[in-house]
Amino acid sequence: MQQLAATTAELDFHSETYKDAYSRINAIVIEGEKEAHENYIRLAELLPEYKEELIRLSKMENRHKKGFEACGRNLQVTPDMQFAQEFFAQLHQNFQKAAESENVVTCLLIQSLIIECFAIAAYNIYIPVADDFARKITEGVVKDEYSHLNFGEVWLKEHFEESKAELEQANRQNLPIVWKMLNAVENDAHTLAMEKEALVEDFMIQYGEALSNIGFTTRDIMRMSAYGLTA
Ligand code: Y39
Ligand code: FE
Ligand code: FE
Ligand code: FE
Question: How far apart are CA 40 and CA 111, in angstroms?
Fold first, then answer.
């Protein structure tokens, strides 16, 4: 049954309920930042022309990871890293496979579009309901995530015609996984006063804008966005 969202005034950051949910959400974010760090190192190997920039992005991800580890410690929460690895397993596997085959377009779609849009949505929704310590950290992080998304947009826009088919295929394969991930985290997010509807809305706005900036038409975007909505 739908419950009303908790407001920040009602949130007790030190309650067992909050900390239990935080042990999973915090772990997801730490694991996500760790994988993003590795993914940008991998992308630097695949795109030697952009090596310096991509290594710079990978270092930012490592700093984000440290920041979110501090958020967990600040609330005396132990992140459930096992849960987080399982949470990311499918996207992680798809990225690895694409990198193995040097499908750089798929790698960019997974990391720089899908995962970055997911991060931007999650951090935007989290900031107003975060504890003071975590809010300051997250505000710094989300600015960086926009620049990571921008890297993917610019590269894919420049290579749009030859990437289009692979982008469509990678979207079809990976977007349904995002909806499954959102479903898996819905209850814990709710405990932190982050509503699934708001996460979906923000994600779709970021992702749709990104596809548009790359060169897809509104019609393409509608079609591509519909994949896996019922996952
Ligand atoms: O590029 C990045 O830094 C992305 C890896 C980080 C992903 C964070 C994923 C957050 C999902 C949290 C879901 C909470 C509702
Ligand atoms: Fe709810
Ligand atoms: Fe990050
Ligand atoms: Fe990022």
Answer: 8
